[in-house]
């Protein structure tokens, strides 16, 4: 075992046996699993972070089982990818059936395959009608790279504006747009040129809010009440608080306008890209008016708006697409047929309604299978600017992944998972608000999100108990990570988010009312252990 893990040549018999890890795993004990993980890590670059030292054997719904027989409530769902739960029977059957027909009919070799045709039908029913042209890829980062290519080709401009805290991928292109943490791009420069990072409205830490004693920022209970009312419920569960939204100073949009005046001229700026709700950056919800103002600003200057819906899309937030909470974009039908022109009005600056010009999707669109893509207005990809050969990829539109995606869309629609995400998200936020009220004021500094994309940010205490104290005092570093570990020790998986002390709840959209209650119970106990040492 040691010799194999050390990479020695060994005998022909030992070489045939490989590392011997699979045989060891069959022992099924915690110590065997530990040895297997040591072997895996010895052959994996340390740059691949591992949050939990577990080897998964199987999964069902919101639960996973490890090789040593332990069960975990999965509130991470593969960083939001397993939208319909682990091994949903409809997805399993669609994949099994497709794998028995054709596994891969490469998209450049063939005009299409049956699973791709079916997926195009399904996508057209859930995407904004103006986004009528699709490109399928493998990952969100690859789709983002291609969105940038399309924006530059369509506009003839080179610069791209992204936002602080955004995460758009780890490829050389998407990495330049990512600023949620320095770790994702440190040591890999020089990055691609022409990228400018604008301030995002992180209102909890806005100096204007601090100066006002956070009078314009809702409490956790008010945040929960706002979400409850938005999904058609009442404001109870937030300790009787009335719904109240963020009152934004308008600084981020002003900073963006200043950037266009001082750093990247509108005539040089191809696109602005943002996540409708920041994901890895801390699950930040934009304040009222921000996305509408951004759409208006882009349209005025002929700048394309790219919505990165990789994490917020596919029903995750209680709408089919995250941007639909703030931009009035329909779904569900083909756009009207008509003559497509290439005037500056059509190429630069907004399609029908408030739709983004390009929408990027991945993760939950295929229930964990590697499928991603983008939807774009047809006039942005004319043959003269994007001739055959400019887009492609070996595994894009893989037949099995397409079948999984079609099944996923059917499940989300037929089983009411968009509504379930809204209702269970409201339940989760109400429970978290109740927990915040139980703990010392300011220890849970913020609860935010939409649907089943919910973030909790921790503070160092103070806050509401004393009007002279700031709303947010920085907590001890590592608090969020310690709480996720305490949750794992109790049988629940969670992830941190962003450079501050935040935790994200990102369960499958199929999660039940009882499973949300279980999650809240485990989280409460973990918070009390770490924050109160109880």
From TrEMBL:
<dbReference type="InterPro" id="IPR015424">
    <property type="entry name" value="PyrdxlP-dep_Trfase"/>
</dbReference>
<dbReference type="InterPro" id="IPR050103">
    <property type="entry name" value="Class-III_PLP-dep_AT"/>
</dbReference>
<dbReference type="GO" id="GO:0008483">
    <property type="term" value="F:transaminase activity"/>
</dbReference>
<protein>
    <recommendedName>
        <fullName>4-aminobutyrate aminotransferase</fullName>
    </recommendedName>
</protein>
<comment type="similarity">
    <text>Belongs to the class-III pyridoxal-phosphate-dependent aminotransferase family.</text>
</comment>
<dbReference type="GO" id="GO:0042802">
    <property type="term" value="F:identical protein binding"/>
</dbReference>
<dbReference type="GO" id="GO:0030170">
    <property type="term" value="F:pyridoxal phosphate binding"/>
</dbReference>
<keyword id="KW-0663">Pyridoxal phosphate</keyword>
<dbReference type="InterPro" id="IPR015421">
    <property type="entry name" value="PyrdxlP-dep_Trfase_major"/>
</dbReference>
<dbReference type="InterPro" id="IPR005814">
    <property type="entry name" value="Aminotrans_3"/>
</dbReference>
<dbReference type="Pfam" id="PF00202">
    <property type="entry name" value="Aminotran_3"/>
</dbReference>
<dbReference type="InterPro" id="IPR015422">
    <property type="entry name" value="PyrdxlP-dep_Trfase_small"/>
</dbReference>
